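Holo model, cobalt (II) ion. Inputs:
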Amino acid sequence: MKPFPLPLPHGMSAETFLAQYWQKKPLLIKAAFPGFKTPLLPDEIAGMACEEGVESRLILERDGDTKWQLSHGPFDEAIFPELPESHWTLLIQEVHKYVPELAQLLESFRFIPNWRIDDVMVSYSPLDGSVGPHVDQYDVFLLQGLGRKRWQISTAEVCHGDLIAGIDLQILSHFEAEQCWELEEGDMLYLPPGVIHHGVALGDGLTYSIGFRAPAECDLITSFIDYLAEEQRLSVKHYRDPGLSFQQHPGEISAVSLQRVRDIINSIPVNDDDLARWFGQVVTESKSDERVEPNAKALSIDAFVKRFRQGEALFRCELSRFACIEQRSATLLFVAGTLTTLSSEMKRAVYLLCDQRMHIATEWAVLLDSPDNAALLCRLYNEGHLYFDND
Ligand code: SIN
Ligand code: CO
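Output:
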């Protein structure tokens, strides 16, 4: 497949970006996507906001019951003609799941591991529309899709008391901009977590936010412990204290008892196998209401290979996340939270499968000669995780 040009400033390598900017400092990328044409139009965004199952939000800066009023979709289409001329923003989450061009846009961010990518969100705002000055806890690339937007940023620390009280949004009551840029279609701004940003539309416009996943450490810890318990990896022995010594105050929990408890906690087993299996499964899990349906027109392996070889492009269903881990002599493939342990002979096929969203037979030519590889692709196709363009 043709390599996707990096959406980085001319001459900047992925390595330079990662070393100097990623998680460190903002970067304005003029013409990151030269001649960018938005695959979504404002009317389509309004239509999506009326659909059940699509996560949408409307933020009214001035004309709601309170300043900065937040409402969640799905919305009635009758609300749109009633909206004011300015000062509001409509946001739709996970648009890459509904718009294949936006899923393909994510291929331009291959310099960041797939599992770190969360979603593409789109915002539509008329003149002066904004979501207010705020900080996010994750990295984001803000791509101007239509119209122009003014972004002001600050790297100052944010304290809880800086937030406007009594609203459902975490908006800062004030901030002093350190830098200000006007982004045009195809321009992009990279922001690491924790940078205050405030984007204001200079007319009707769309912004795509390519957002990254940053699981909270407490969630990772509790999820791992749950996994260990389910896999029966945790000790079922009971607390014992054969060396118990007499204590003057029976009401006290002694330091020695606490040390015994600490030893139990410290003995939680964290081995490489469990860590890999648990993490691969949790980061590829689909949302509970988003599992793919098995393909109604299941194919035999021969029929599948024939179609693929005839030139039809094969795509990843965006509801299914793919990831792989190489572990000793095995290749672990995770698709939508399910692990398949494969032999290391299938490593090249599995890596190709997980690296790309779109596959063409010429890249799989030799790999498809292996019956195991062909069977794997066919199974994932029949399960609905892959689909042909013409399906
Ligand atoms: C916007 O699109 O205006 C808001 C996106 C963000 O701040 O994360
Ligand atoms: Co933000």
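The chain has a mean pLDDT of 96. Residues 123, 131, 136, 140, 197, 199, 207, 209 surround succinic acid (ligand 1) (CB under 6 Å).
Archived with the compound record.
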